[in-house]
Design brief:
The complex is a heterotetramer of chains A (126), B (106), C (344) and D (501).
Chain A: H1 2-26, H2 30-51, H3 81-112, H4 117-125
Helix pairs in contact in A: 1-2, 2-3
Chain B: H1 2-25, H2 29-56, H3 62-96
Helix pairs in contact in B: 1-2, 2-3
Chain C: H1 7-26, H2 30-50, H3 54-78, H4 90-108, H5 123-126, H6 129-140, H7 145-153, H8 155-176, H9 180-186, H10 202-224, H11 233-250, H12 253-259, H13 262-285, H14 304-336
Helix pairs in contact in C: 1-2, 2-3, 3-11, 3-14, 6-7, 6-14, 7-8, 7-14, 8-13, 8-14, 10-11, 11-12, 11-14, 13-14
Classes of the chains: A mainly alpha (126), B mainly alpha (106), C mainly alpha (344), D mainly alpha (501).
């Protein structure tokens, strides 16, 4: 059973990636495209966090011993901080991209009164 | 203290169950919001107080005080935020013209 | 503390996440999609917190579930929330479906080759990462390893990340901002249906007025205490931004803009990045490499490790400033459609 | 102080942009000079580094002083200037500097009243592109990629109207590319445990046959291809470049795609060794077919265009095919050709779009039919235009000839004749288009020198635009004449040692 779990995270990552990618490419609605994009990004974040996870590990904050000294950490019992930093960056990049995408979508809606890609293209041909 | 914590958490879960059933089964927008707003707030607050009780057996002193203070802050936010949000949504529903359920209507 | 994770619970969450993703994409009401997406993000937070990534979960809760949802909603406030049912295009959708499935199978083919979940000896956990855990106290005296890696070992990434937020802010500003004078001639004014304004309600106004100081207090704690507990400039900045966004929603934009004019907001956005870059530059002038805060020990109190610790605090404040004001400026732009007058 | 030069390259445009964003609010006129100064500092540092690298090899710089630690590899972020990227760094910062000077008048004319953040975004885009080129860390590369991408979405959206939709499509494709790249980095990271390019490249050969590494490689390549608009992902590029304001296109078109090609080269040559490609011949021949297809399709579409900007955008697409194909030939002349062509094509595209910008500035639009008599109106601009087109076609003293020569040599050596045919066909198409433009611009109006015909007044673009255009066109010839020196002193050292000569 443990083996299933060990790969289960990765399977979910792949499914989320597929959902997000499909939505970015096949959905016609601009907002749905943006949401698909965000889902793809969270899937990737899940992947990174999964490769950095450790069994029965604590959060990466060292515990304090007396008087501003700290216990020597047991590396195998502290979750990997590196993947977490990378994903903090990725989350912030994700929200920045989402914001710009929404701003563009809003401008497009002002011109065409629609979020639908086909309708917008028809409008542009006129 | 542990016992009290578990009791509180279980009671909270019961209320949560009630909320969920109410949300699904009540007939109109207003009654559903009523269930969601009330039960949700109460059960969350109970569960959080249960958490304070449970953690009091694991940590102590200054650390417990800080932890309890943080949880109390969360309770404060939920206690004010959740009913206000419910109120705003009800108000919006009222203005948008959602019809309330009357006894004989279907 | 506690041991992690109860695997049944984790597996359930993972399945729920997929369900929520599907629902968010198939719901026809866009406002509903935004809400479901927010719930999806919260589920994700739980999963990450369960794997020990508290800082990431915290950021996702503040950014992904909180602010992103607000952004989508303020966009929808100015546009329309419903999707028209359209037929056709099925062949294209199927084609993309096949492509995506092929990609998925290709990715799955690599699974047996990846290290097992939770293996403390996998390359990721054994190569570079242990250095941070064992040296963070000696190098920077910061027990929260995430903070020390974020702002010190990989501080350059964080500088750039702050720059990304800054870019997003000025990009949205350039895309959306319109002059009121030009409005009549240039852009067709969107005729907005009368909408519900939460600011009409006394209860909402008073409640948010009561909550905002607590939120700001908490945010400052998150920034200042980021060395010892989860949090830091990003999370704190987002919460500070959210507190003012709450004011903007519960009163109105004018109320916010009376205190923070457009000019002040946009200049403060730039000042945070500038503070970060300048701290780095100061290190160069003191004779070290860029962002080597240890060199600042002659102007900051303490030895090299404490100087690093203080340098980290300085750059976190820079990050906080930029993120806070970016979030507010982005919200104002999206909510008022670039007119800076009224809106969600 | 020279050891600080690598970071100066990034900091110049970054600080310039931040300061420009400040001054935009109280001294709007200061924004442009600030950005130019920042780019100038960056260019000076990059130029100095070219000589340093040629003399004493690769320069490494550790941010925060976090270099190699015993048993852990590099714990911080490293930026590297070596033989592979030093020329491109100089080219990117130099072209950006010239373009910043050049666009001043265009921006004042095209974006009047809206240019508050234009130069800040301009400078940030250059920061991102320089960062992609200089970084020695595969995750840092992703962040720089996003910096470049976000600022370019905004720069394109300045065009208004249809530009918004073009920019949105670019955003979706660009984010997809970045996400695929990041996922690929995840796979590499999962196997290698480090993000530093030098360390990863040392670890990968030790791991042997690994499916995860292969998946990572493919994902990274797909990501880079989406960013550079390689054949199946090319849909966003023509609209984005055609509807963007000319000032934005003048910067985006020459640099953005080329830097993505460089990122692909870096992954292929440094992170994964070139053996990796040689040992997977099926993938190799597939990519070669794709590049030939990209070249042929883009050439075909460029024939059907009536808008000069769109036509040039299709040229960009076909040049992408050259570089990807050249790199995947995986032999010495092919890789040399690709590396030379990245720099040469940046210069050529820059000159092309500068000339088009001059035409747009005077004529107001860039439809082919409006070019009647343009040779008499703007003789200097058109001279530069013809030189640029000659370079794109591959006429000998220009740089386009030499890179193309290397590419054809490489293709012949590998026996990939369809690639040779595609290269020649694309040259032919460009020649046809050049002659068509000459026909429209020269012959469609009665010749003014002949007695009795109406005189056509000279109406050259302003000097601030004309000088960079001419300088760039002359630079093409200079670059062509200097190709052999560059190849011998710098590029030949960037090639992996394992290659067959």
């Amino acid at each position: 059973m443990q083996n299933l779990i060990s790969n289960f995270n990765y399977v979910i990552v792949v499914i989320l990636m597929m959902i997000g990618l499909w939505s970015m490419l096949a959905q016609k609605n601009l907002i749905k495209k943006c949401i698909g994009m965000a889902i793809f990004q969270t899937g990737i974040i899940l992947f990174f966090i999964s490769i950095g996870a450790k069994d029965n590990a604590l959060i990466p904050i060292l515990t304090e011993a007396a008087n501003h000294t700290y216990h020597d950490p047991d590396v195998a019992k502290v979750a990997n901080p590196l993947t977490q930093i990378l994903m903090l960056t990725a989350i912030v990049v994700g929200v920045a991209t989402l914001g710009v995408g929404l701003a563009l979508a809003q401008k497009i809606y002002q011109q065409h009164s629609s979020f639908d890609e086909d309708e917008i293209l028809e409008n542009q041909r006129k | 203290m542990d016992f009290l914590g578990y009791i509180l958490i279980c009671a909270g879960l019961v209320f949560f169950l009630g909320t969920t059933i109410g949300l699904l089964r009540f007939p109109d927008f207003y009654t559903r919001m009523h269930a969601a707003g009330k039960g949700d707030t109460l059960s969350t607050v109970m569960i959080l107080i249960g958490c304070i009780c449970l953690s009091s057996t694991q940590v102590d002193g200054m650390e417990l005080l800080l932890l309890a203070l943080k949880i109390l802050l969360i309770i404060n936010f939920i206690f004010i935020g959740s009913p206000t949000a419910t109120h705003a949504m009800m108000d919006a529903g009222n203005k948008a013209g959602a019809a309330p359920w009357i006894k004989d209507s279907k | 503390m506690s041991t992690l994770p109860i695997w049944q619970f984790d597996a359930l969450l993972l399945i729920m996440v997929v369900l929520f993703a599907v629902v968010a994409l198939s719901i026809r009401n866009l406002m509903g999609a935004a809400i479901v997406f927010g719930a999806y993000s919260f589920m994700m937070c739980l999963i990450w917190a369960g794997m020990g990534a508290v800082d990431v979960a915290f950021t996702e809760a503040a950014v992904g579930a909180g602010v992103s949802t607000v952004f989508v909603m303020s966009t929808l406030y100015n546009t329309g929330a419903t999707m028209h049912r359209r037929t056709g295009g099925l062949a294209f959708k199927l084609f993309i479906g096949v492509v995506v499935t092929v990609a998925g199978v290709f990715l799955l083919s690599a699974l047996p080759d990846l290290p097992a979940w939770g293996d403390p000896d996998s390359p990721v956990n054994a190569a570079v990462a242990p250095y941070y855990i064992t040296h963070t106290i000696a190098d920077a005296h910061v027990p929260n390893v995430v903070t020390s890696v974020l702002a010190d070992y990989r501080g350059f990434d964080t500088l750039l990340e702050t720059t990304v937020v800054f870019i997003a802010c000025i990009a949205i500003y350039s895309i959306l901002r319109v002059d009121k004078a030009k409005l009549e001639t240039d852009e067709p004014a969107v005729v907005a249906a009368p909408r519900y304004d939460p600011g009409d309600s006394l209860i909402v106004r008073q409640a948010s007025r009561f909550m905002v100081p607590f939120m700001q207090l908490f945010a400052l704690y998150v920034i200042a205490h980021g060395h010892y507990s989860p949090g830091g400039g990003f999370q704190g900045g987002v919460i500070l931004g959210a507190s003012l966004i709450l004011l903007a929603i519960s009163f109105d934009l004018k109320f916010l803009l009376r205190q923070w004019s457009e000019k002040t907001l946009m200049m403060l956005v730039a000042s945070g990045v500038f503070l970060y870059a300048a701290v780095g530059l100061a290190c160069v002038f003191m004779g070290g490499n860029y962002l080597d805060y240890g060199e600042l020990n002659s102007i900051l109190p303490g030895e090299r490790d404490m100087a690093r610790s203080h340098g980290i605090l300085l750059v976190e404040i820079g990050v906080g400033i930029t993120v806070m004001f970016s979030m507010i400026a982005i919200h104002i732009n999206l909510a008022s459609n670039g007119r800076f007058d009224r809106g969600l | 102080m020279t050891e600080q030069l690598p970071i100066v390259i990034i900091l110049g445009p970054l600080l310039g942009a931040v300061l420009a964003a400040f001054t935009a609010w109280f001294r709007p006129k200061l924004s442009h000079p600030l950005v130019v100064v920042g780019l100038g500092i960056s260019f000076a540092a990059a130029l100095k580094l070219v000589f340093i690298v040629a003399d004493s090899g690769a320069q490494k710089y550790w941010l925060g002083g976090w270099g190699t630690k015993q048993g852990h590899g590099v714990v911080g972020i490293q930026i590297t200037v070596d033989h592979l990227n030093t020329l491109l760094l100089a080219a990117v910062s130099g072209i950006a500097l010239l373009t910043a000077q050049y666009t001043k008048r265009l921006v004042d004319a095209e974006l009047a009243g809206r240019q508050r953040y234009f130069y800040a975004l301009f400078s940030l885009l250059v920061t991102g592109l320089l960062g992609i080129t200089i970084t020695g860390d595969i995750f840092n590369l992703y962040v720089f990629m996003e910096i470049a991408a976000l600022s370019s979405y905004a720069l394109i959206a300045y065009g208004r109207g249809r530009a918004y939709m073009a920019s949105f499509n670019y955003l979706i494709m660009g984010t997809m590319g970045a996400c695929l790249y990041l996922l690929g980095v995840g796979f590499v990271f999962a196997k290698a445990g480090t993000l530093n390019i030098d360390d990863v490249s040392a670890i990968i050969p030790e791991l042997g046959q690994s499916q995860a590494l292969f998946v990572g490689f493919v994902l990274i390549l797909l990501g880079a291809w989406a960013k550079m608009a390689f054949f199946p992902f090319h849909g966003w590029l023509p609209n984005a470049y055609a509807y963007a304001p000319t000032a934005s296109t003048a910067l985006l078109a020459p640099l953005a795609t080329k830097v993505s090609v460089y990122a692909m080269l870096r992954i292929m040559v440094t992170v994964y060794s070139i053996d990796y490609i040689i040992h997977s011949p099926a993938t190799q021949s597939l990519v070669l077919y794709l590049s030939s297809l990209a070249i042929v399709a883009a050439s075909f579409f460029s024939l059907t265009q009536t808008n000069l900007k769109k036509l040039a955008a299709y040229f960009v697409l076909s040049e992408i095919g050259y570089m990807v194909g050249g790199a995947w030939l995986a032999n010495k002349p092919g890789l040399t050709g690709a590396m030379v062509h990245v720099v040469a094509d940046a210069a050529m595209t820059s000159a092309l779009f500068m000339a088009i910008g001059c035409i747009v500035y005077r004529l107001g639009q860039a439809q082919l039919d409006d070019l009647k008599g343009v040779f008499f109106k703007m003789p200097v601009t058109m001279a530069a235009f013809v030189v640029t087109m000659a370079a794109l076609i591959g006429v000998p003293p220009t740089c386009g000839f030499f890179s193309k020569w290397y590419l054809i040599q490489g293709a012949a050596q590998a026996g990939v004749w369809h690639f040779v045919a595609a290269l020649l066909l694309s040259s032919l198409v460009k020649a046809i288009i050049l002659f068509r433009i000459i026909e429209i611009g020269y012959n469609r109006v009665p010749h003014p020198a002949i007695e009795g015909n109406p005189a056509i007044p000279r109406n050259e673009a302003p000097l601030s635009m004309l000088i960079p255009t001419v300088a760039m066109a002359l630079g093409l010839i200079a670059l062509g004449l200097g190709t052999s020196t560059l190849v011998n002193t710098i590029i030949s050292k960037a090639l992996p040692a394992a290659l067959t000569p």
